Backbone:
């Protein structure tokens, strides 16, 4: 049984001992009334005790969450900068884009840039979300643990981050942290300006640095339409491509290599 | 002697209009064949049919003993033509024009100097490099003829070749036709609405009206001097006719026309007749001898009425 | 036949009006390039309005490939007028000048004349397009550089890799040639009926203008007749600038969204050309030349 219950018993026990010595002095009914009163007082105490216990317990796990995030961040902070190469696939209902090679540049604390090595890049707005370290770069947030879950067979802790800054674009971020490996497996971010993003990360060779091999970035999009009179369309009679109402977009980046801590000139971020 | 052109029962209808009506004629080698008729008589349509520009509604055309419809190319290779206005490419020079047509005329390939010689025949050698748009009507006509002759054809068809030319130009064309026929032995078909012009060059004549053949024959026969008409105008025509009826000339009298007395006689008798008029004291206002063919033509062109058939 | 073709070409290229078309194309292409060079970013911003709401787009968007596409889109509606100017004059112009009868009294068949003239018109058309291709594509590439091309369609955006574009232009110009030959054969056909070139030129242009308006109007009642208008098929070259996607919505490099539809459009145009050419021969063979 729970410790609370044994506590309760000991209180009752102490009272019955006192009640025994008083039994000769007072009548039974009186004793009963006193006992009931005492019971009520004890109940109140018990509730207070219970509340204190719960609050202190939460405080303890909130501290745990902050600590966990600090540990994750510390791991990420091993990386000062990197240049990564990889490929990017865009999956947006109204965009037909080929997969392309990209180069990703990062520098602590929050400089981040994706560049298509050739051609035009179409990236969802709010590209910061591509990088964990910059997400965690500010200290000013409150971390709240909200339970556990399993992603792709890995046990993860759910932690909600609430920015302390009222004006921050990010309203809420949920992290799915793999505590054992100190890796963020998934995030879900709600912003004021750019809607909600979701990121899923798979780790491989560079897990030691907290750098993913593959990131799937999902986001909401606004509508796209240009009047046919402007485009002078050639009607191919194709059925309206996919379901245009599904305004969920996806960008998938697969990293093939990272060059870590070899320095990146600031000019790359312009 | 096999005919160069043999036309049999040729007809052409444009919707309701009959332009050529059951026409037959033959052109022999070496002929200068005069093709006479009013404007709109069907000359042009007939000539265009000879050149396969217009498809006959009925009838048969044989040229060089070949059917025109089955042997068009072979026939056209040996024919040269100028139809109405001698139109060529105005934005090209005379030399470019003749060069261009010589290439598709089916004759021997000519060098530049040979082409210049051809232009010299019609007196255009000095203007060989001028654009045709700067040419006068007569120069264009001469260029048209040079083009028609460039491949040395056996048959030459000229539709109204003197239209729009000045007297000198007309004379030049006439001399050229005579030379082609007499010196080079070409067969020439030449159309005109002017008898006077044809009279001087043609050895054979075809006269059509409203698409029908009126007469075909040798010029020498058609221009028989015995067929001369004298048109007489006097102060008192009625009295003059009475006097003439009583004279030996009564058999020469023709039906009178408005204001004129008409007599037919041999050209040689005219001086005698003239003298006798004086002796009969007929007061003559005008005395006009004219060949009957010419007279007929004059009647055709001055009035719409068909006045009289020529040969009686 | 070869002789006749040479002569027809000689005639076409000896005329000043032939060069008006080349000058007009050079001027129009130059004007569009100048305008885009100066103010193209405004245009791009306008076209990308919807896309920029959710995406940040980087790269040389206004590159030579896109400029060429814009030029073709604008010009291919107007080039038919320049082609008509020559094609609709081929027979009627000669009838008017009086040279047609001279030509026909030469030992050449009427079929040969039609074929030679049509071939000459085709060569002129193709030369005009090649001239346009050089100016619109190569000169634009030199001025605006190259990059991927964003084909901003009405319902979606197609991103074409720069390495995957050139062949599409080769095909597009080939298709445009078919479209323009259709115009040429229409003008040519109409030119047989007239004895001056104004009539057939105006008639051809009117047909094209009316059909083009019907083809571009997005009004349901006209949508039914659209497939039967050759002008609807004439913009089929745009089909080369759309790609297929795989199951993951990833554009497949080197693919064409609807090859069948493009080929069908090309087929319809070829049928028009052959049909009009055969009709021209039949009518011309029967024609009495009275000019």
Residues:
């Amino acid at each position: 049984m729970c410790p609370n219950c044994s506590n309760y018993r000991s209180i009752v026990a102490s009272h019955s001992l006192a009640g025994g010595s008083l039994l000769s002095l007072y009548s039974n009914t009186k004793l009963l009334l006193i006992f009931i009163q005492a019971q009520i007082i004890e109940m109140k105490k018990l509730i207070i005790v219970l509340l204190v216990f719960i609050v202190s317990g939460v405080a303890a796990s909130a501290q745990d969450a902050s600590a966990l995030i600090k540990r994750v961040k510390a791991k990420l902070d091993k990386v000062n900068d990197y240049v990564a190469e990889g490929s990017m696939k865009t999956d947006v209902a109204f965009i037909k884009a080929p997969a392309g090679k990209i180069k990703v540049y990062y520098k602590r604390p929050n400089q981040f840039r994706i560049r298509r090595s050739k051609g035009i890049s179409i990236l969802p707005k709010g590209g910061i979300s591509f990088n964990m370290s910059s997400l965690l770069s500010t200290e000013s947030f409150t971390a709240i643990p909200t339970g556990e879950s399993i992603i792709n067979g890995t046990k993860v802790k759910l932690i909600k981050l609430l920015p302390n800054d009222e004006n921050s674009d990010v309203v809420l971020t949920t992290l799915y942290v793999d505590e054992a490996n100190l890796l963020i497996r998934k995030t879900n971010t709600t912003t004021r300006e750019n809607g909600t993003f979701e990121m899923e990360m798979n780790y491989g060779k560079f897990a030691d640095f907290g750098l993913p091999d593959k990131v799937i970035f999902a986001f909401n999009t606004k509508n796209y339409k240009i009047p046919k009179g402007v485009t002078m369309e050639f009607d191919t009679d194709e059925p309206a491509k996919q379901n245009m109402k599904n305004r969920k977009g996806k960008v998938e980046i697969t990293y093939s290599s990272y060059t870590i801590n070899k320095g990146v000139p600031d000019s790359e971020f312009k | 002697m096999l005919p160069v052109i043999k036309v049999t029962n040729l007809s052409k209808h444009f919707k309701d209009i009959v332009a050529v009506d059951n026409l037959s004629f033959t052109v022999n080698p070496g002929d200068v064949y005069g093709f006479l008729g009013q404007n709109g008589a069907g000359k042009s349509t007939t000539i265009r049919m000879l050149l396969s520009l217009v498809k006959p509604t009925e009838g048969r055309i044989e040229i060089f003993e070949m059917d025109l419809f089955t042997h068009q190319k072979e026939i056209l290779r040996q024919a040269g033509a100028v139809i109405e206005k001698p139109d060529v490419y105005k934005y090209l020079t005379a030399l470019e024009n003749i060069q261009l047509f010589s290439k598709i005329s089916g004759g021997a390939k000519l060098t530049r100097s040979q082409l210049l010689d051809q232009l010299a025949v019609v007196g255009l050698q000095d203007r060989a490099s001028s654009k045709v748009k700067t040419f006068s009507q007569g120069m264009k006509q001469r260029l048209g003829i040079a083009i028609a002759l460039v491949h040395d054809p056996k048959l030459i068809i000229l539709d109204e070749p003197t239209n729009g030319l000045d007297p000198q130009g007309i004379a030049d064309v006439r001399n050229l036709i005579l030379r082609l026929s007499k010196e080079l032995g070409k067969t020439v078909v030449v159309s005109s609405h002017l008898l006077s012009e044809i009279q001087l060059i043609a050895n054979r004549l075809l006269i059509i009206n409203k698409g029908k053949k009126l007469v075909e024959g040798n010029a020498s026969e058609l221009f028989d001097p015995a067929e001369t008409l004298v048109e007489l105008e006097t102060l008192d025509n009625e009295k003059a006719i009475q006097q003439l009826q009583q004279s030996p000339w009564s058999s020469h009298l023709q039906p009178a026309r408005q204001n004129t007395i008409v007599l037919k006689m041999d050209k040689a008798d005219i001086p005698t007749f003239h003298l006798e008029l004086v002796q009969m004291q007929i007061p003559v206002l005008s005395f006009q001898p004219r060949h009957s063919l010419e007279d007929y033509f004059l009647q055709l062109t001055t009035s719409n009425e068909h006045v009289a058939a020529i040969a009686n | 036949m070869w002789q006749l073709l040479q002569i027809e070409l000689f005639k076409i290229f000896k005329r000043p009006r032939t060069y008006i078309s080349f000058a007009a194309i050079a001027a129009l292409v130059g004007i569009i390039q100048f305008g885009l060079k100066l103010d193209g970013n405004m245009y791009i911003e306008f076209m990308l309005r919807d896309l920029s709401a959710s995406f940040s787009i980087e790269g040389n968007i206004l590159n030579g490939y896109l400029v060429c596409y814009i030029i073709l889109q604008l010009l291919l509606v107007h080039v038919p007028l320049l082609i008509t100017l020559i094609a609709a004059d081929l027979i009627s112009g000669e009838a008017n000048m009086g040279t047609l009868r001279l030509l026909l009294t030469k030992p050449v068949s009427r079929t040969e004349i039609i074929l030679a003239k049509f071939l000459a018109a085709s060569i002129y058309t193709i030369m005009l397009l090649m001239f346009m291709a050089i100016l619109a594509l190569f000169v634009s590439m030199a001025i605006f550089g190259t990059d991927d091309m964003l084909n901003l369609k009405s319902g979606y955006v197609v991103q074409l890799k720069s390495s995957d574009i050139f062949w599409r232009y080769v095909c597009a110009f080939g298709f445009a040639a078919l479209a323009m030959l259709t115009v040429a054969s229409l003008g040519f056909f109409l030119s047989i009926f007239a004895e001056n070139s104004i009539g057939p030129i105006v008639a051809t242009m009117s047909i094209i203008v009316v059909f083009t308006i019907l083809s571009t109007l997005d009004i349901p009642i006209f949508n039914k007749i659209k497939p039967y208008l050759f002008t609807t098929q004439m913009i089929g070259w745009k089909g080369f600038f759309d790609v297929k996607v795989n199951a993951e919505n990833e554009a497949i490099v080197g693919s064409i969204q609807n090859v069948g539809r493009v080929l069908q459009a090309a087929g319809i145009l070829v049928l028009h050309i052959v049909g009009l050419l055969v009709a021209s021969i039949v009518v011309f063979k029967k024609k009495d030349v009275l000019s």
Q: What stands out?
A: The longest helix of chain A spans residues 28-76. The longest strand of chain A covers residues 248-260.
